[in-house]
Amino acid sequence: MNIPNILTLLRVALIPIFILLFYMPFHWSYLAAALVFTLASVTDWLDGYLARKLQQSTPFGAFLDPVADKLMVVIALVLLVQHHANFWVTAPAAIIIGRELVISALREWMAEMGARAHVAVSKLGKYKTALQMVALVVLLANPPELRLWVIVGYILLAMSAVLTLWSMVVYLIAAWPHLRPDSDQNSSK
């Protein structure tokens, strides 16, 4: 157990606290839930940075880090879809969650083919994640009333959904030589 792995486990442990704060019937609960989500987002960046800087990457961390990230994002999206109950949150949430499922399956399959590096995280994926996190923090910090910050959150979430689709297309294009029915990997099956 090292510091990056402890930070990843902390992110998972923050999930029930995040959910509890989100549903508390106090005016400050929106901000509190957004702060916990922000803390989890910062630990996501920090654990990766420390793992590289301190050379403390582990198989456990490599497995749990993306799981923790996806859990936090998907849970935040589900809470926001339920709370806002409109197209402007639901459509981007469906795109983001759908893309995560597709790319996770693609990475797993590509790893089995020995070509995992073809679908490694790209800069576009990092930009998508950063924009998505900002959008989620803005939406979590505000009640679902059509006010300036919520509109800004909707716009940022829509922009992150566009980047999400774009990054998915980039990954699929990179993986296409391995996905084609006539590829060498598939010809023996």
Q: Gist?
A:
With 189 residues, the chain is mainly α. It has helices at 3-23, 29-53, 59-84, 87-112, 123-140, 148-179, 184-187.
- List unreliable stretches of 5+ residues: none
Largest sheet: none
Quick check: average pLDDT? 89
Count of DSSP strands: 0
Structural class: mainly alpha
Radius of gyration: 18 Å
- The fraction of residues assigned to DSSP E strands is under 5%
How many angstroms separate the termini?
Answer: 41 Å
Task: Give the proportion of residues in helices.
Answer: over 70%
Helix-strand pattern, N to C?
Answer: HHHHHHH
What features would you describe in this structure?
The chain has 189 residues and is mainly alpha-helical. It contains seven helices and no strands. The longest helix has 32 residues, at 148-179.
Write the layout of secondary structure elements.
Blueprint: H1 3-23, H2 29-53, H3 59-84, H4 87-112, H5 123-140, H6 148-179, H7 184-187
Helix pairs in contact: 1-2, 1-3, 2-3, 2-5, 3-4, 3-5, 4-6, 5-6
What labels describe this entry?
single chain, 189 residues, 7 helices, globular
